[in-house]
Amino acid sequence: MELGSIFILVGALLSAADGIMFHLQPNTQKCLREEIHKDVLVTGEFEVQDTPGQKVDIQVTDSKGHHLFMKEEADSGKFIFNTEDYDVYEVCFVSRVPPTQRGIQQEIKLNTKHGVEAKSYEALGEAAKLKPLEVELKRLEDLSESIVQDFSYMRQREEEMRDTNESTNSRVLYLSLFSLCCLIGLATWQVLYLRKFFKAKKLIE
User: Fold this and answer.
1) Where along the chain do its domains lie?
2) Which residue has the higher pLDDT, 26 or 170?
3) Domain 6-116 sits in which CATH superfamily?
4) Which of 32, 44, 36, 39 is nearest to 8 (CA)?
5) Alpha carbon distance 101, 109 (integer Å)
6) How far apart are CA 197 and CA 191, in angstroms?
7) How far is it, in rounded angstroms, from Cα 116 to Cα 42?
8) CA-to-CA distance for 76 and 42, rounded, in angstroms?
9) pLDDT of 203
């Protein structure tokens, strides 16, 4: 199958609790991607506009190409997975239209959640026989932990960037000193060479 243009939508799309809607052109692919932390629950629900003769496949992959979810000729459905590593995760919709048919664009609806948003606290409360207030407190506790993890990750990234900058600055300094030494050595050699040359020509004593 030959795909037309491939559109990549980059942004915080997987975290949009209200979901998104877009149009998929015939024989094209649209992918939505986002970086997600390790050990995070991700859920998704999708719906594809029914168009006679046209098929749409969906696949969810990580940056290494591992398939976390895949469904051919998808019309609607749900997917759920836990992230094993901090990585970029991608949801792709692929349109397939027979060469003999003139295709039309299809409407795609996608609602994805991750982290605290993806957990069903109502089901958790029923299973543990918790009161509504206790369920809400549990949700707030998880939300607080999620915020702390985000800040911890941001601090870690800041430290990594600072270490990288310091390492780069040190390398630039060493390179500058090496270049300066080379220039001084070259200048000294030129002076000695010219002095010897002029003496040989008896231009100087």
Assistant:
1) 6-116
2) 26
3) GOLD domain (2.60.120.680)
4) 32
5) 24
6) 10
7) 10
8) 17
9) 66
pLDDT of residue 6: 42
**What values do phi and psi take at 118, rounded to 5?**
-85, -15
Q: In this predicted structure, which of 59-68, 69-78, 108-117 has the lowest mean pLDDT?
A: 108-117
Angstrom distances, CA of residue 83 to CA of 67, 144, 167: 12, 20, 32
User: Is the pLDDT reported for residue 68 higher than 50?
Assistant: yes
Rounded to whole angstroms, how far apart are CA atoms 135 and 56?
39
Residue with tokens 């960037």: 161
Distance CA 195, CA 189 (A): 10
- Beta carbons within 10 angstroms of residue 58's beta carbon: 21
The DSSP code sequence of 98-161 is -TTS----EEEEEEEEEGGGGS-HHHHHHHHT--HHHHHHHHHHHHHHHHHHHHHHHHHHHHHH
Tell me the β-bridge partners of 32.
Answer: 9, 91
In angstroms, how far apart are the furthest CA atoms of the chain?
Answer: 107
Residue 91 confidence (pLDDT): 94
Is 85 within 8 Å of 37 (Cβ atoms)?
Answer: no
